[in-house]
């Protein structure tokens, strides 16, 4: 079965912050070299990397990492594209729970530019980010970059009911059906609480909200947001054309729980996900991030025939292929690198088995309400790359 040549990667989603200075938050993401290393490694694995965004602030960050010319080259080569989200995933106090936030300017209180970038039109968002985030390039270069980014950006839209059914309701069910995750939530609620309502957790005042973070969950609200983000990423993978997904470490447990709740047998569950590890891969992402190897050299290597063939092999990977893929990856990097001196990494991912391959399953999935399972029944069987930074509690 042919698999996707592209991956949607929420690990490179720049979180908007409502409780700290936005400028400092964006600078922190930009200055974290692990984010650049992650981006580089994904480019080596996939023909196209799709980055979700709300305010398009990832654009000037990418320009700062790799330079204007190379960013334009990536966009022209269709190695990079964006998905603009319709709202900001949030958890709101006073019983509102998981909410998608979209804001309008108040009467007599116009937006500041970052607010307009987040909640204004896509075109305006791109213009503002390029104008404020790329001050050293010329007007003609700004216009070129804006044009390329717009051409490579898909605005994502969905109805409120879709969000409620497939992000909110499903995420609460995922946590409620997982003993480890539910106990994590309970451990951060008052000890005398007789019942836990996942849409009314402590830690937020009635008029407060919280957005998702790349940090490990610190309490129940963080965990709810992380699981909701996981379901959002799975939905995006399907909506954007049945893409592979970079997802939280531990997501395989959530997916198995989805099947278990609709009555799938233990024998079929064992066939659902095939976990693979590629060990001791040269970590060129870290080398580029640390300045030991230029992004221009990396891009040239990545466009070569052997590297292109490796990405094709990975696209068609089967569960038995892990060792062959390791050898193919090293071969794709050529002979000019001193591999003994490069840092190494392990890449963990899962192959989701196609619906028609798993036997026996009766009519247990008929009328399933979970969006991912419904798409899986329709033929969506992505690879899931686990991001250990965003790990779920064990």
Which characteristics define this entry?
alpha/beta; eight-stranded mixed beta sheet; single chain; about 45% helix; three-stranded antiparallel beta sheet; 11 strands; globular; about 15% strand; about 400 residues; 17 helices
Task: Give a written overview of the molecule.
It is a single chain. This protein has 394 residues and is α/β, with parallel strands linked by helices. 46% of the residues lie in helices and 15% in strands. It has helices spanning 22-31, 33-45, 58-66, 68-76, 113-119, 122-133, 139-151, 160-176, 179-187, 220-239, 251-261, 266-272, 284-289, 295-302, 305-315, 322-332, 371-377; strands at 6-9, 48-53, 80-84, 88-92, 97-101, 153-155, 209-211, 244-248, 273-282, 344-352, 383-387. An 8-stranded mixed sheet has the order 6-3-2-1-8-11-10-9, with helices on both faces. Strands 5-4-7 form a 3-stranded antiparallel sheet, covered by helices on one side. Helix 3 packs across helix 4, helix 6 (122-133) packs antiparallel against helix 7 (139-151) and helix 8 (160-176) packs across helix 10 (220-239). It is globular and about 60 Å long. 37% of the residues are buried.
């Amino acid at each position: 079965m042919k698999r996707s040549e592209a991956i949607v990667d929420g690990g490179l989603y720049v979180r908007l912050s409502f409780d700290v200075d936005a400028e400092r938050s964006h600078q922190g993401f930009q200055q974290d070299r692990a984010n650049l290393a992650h981006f580089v490694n994904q480019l080596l694995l996939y023909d196209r990397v799709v980055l979700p965004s709300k305010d398009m602030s990832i654009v000037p960050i990418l320009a700062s990492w790799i330079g204007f010319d190379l960013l334009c080259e990536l966009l022209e080569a269709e190695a990079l594209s964006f998905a603009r989200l319709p709202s900001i995933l949030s958890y709101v106090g006073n019983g509102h729970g998981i909410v998608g936030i979209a804001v309008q300017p108040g009467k007599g209180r116009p937006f500041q530019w970052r607010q307009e970038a987040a909640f204004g039109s896509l075109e305006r968002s791109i213009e503002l980010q390029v104008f404020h985030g790329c001050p050293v390039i010329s007007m003609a270069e700004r216009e070129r970059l804006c044009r390329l980014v717009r051409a490579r950006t898909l605005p994502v839209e969905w109805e409120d009911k879709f969000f409620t059914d497939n992000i909110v309701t499903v995420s609460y069910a995922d946590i409620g059906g997982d003993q480890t995750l539910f106990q994590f939530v309970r451990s951060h609620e008052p000890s005398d609480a007789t019942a836990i309502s996942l849409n009314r957790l402590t830690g937020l005042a009635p008029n407060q909200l919280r957005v998702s973070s790349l940090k490990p969950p610190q309490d129940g609200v963080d965990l709810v947001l992380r699981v909701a983000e996981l379901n959002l990423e799975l939905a995006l993978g399907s909506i954007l054309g049945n893409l592979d997904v970079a997802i939280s470490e531990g997501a395989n447990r959530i997916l198995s729980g989805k099947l278990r709740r609709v009555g799938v047998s233990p024998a079929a569950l064992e066939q659902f996900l095939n976990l693979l590890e590629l060990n001791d891969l040269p970590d060129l992402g870290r080398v580029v991030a640390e300045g030991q190897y230029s992004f221009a050299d990396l891009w040239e290597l990545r466009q070569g025939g052997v590297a292109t063939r490796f990405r094709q092999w990975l696209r068609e990977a089967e569960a038995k292929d892990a060792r062959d893929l390791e050898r193919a990856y090293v071969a794709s990097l050529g002979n000019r690198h001193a591999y003994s001196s490069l840092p190494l990494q392990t890449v963990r991912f899962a192959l989701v088995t196609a619906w028609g391959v798993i036997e026996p399953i009766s009519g247990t999935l008929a009328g399933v309400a979970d969006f991912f399972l419904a798409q899986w029944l329709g033929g969506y069987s992505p690879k899931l790359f686990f991001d250990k930074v965003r790990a779920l509690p064990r």
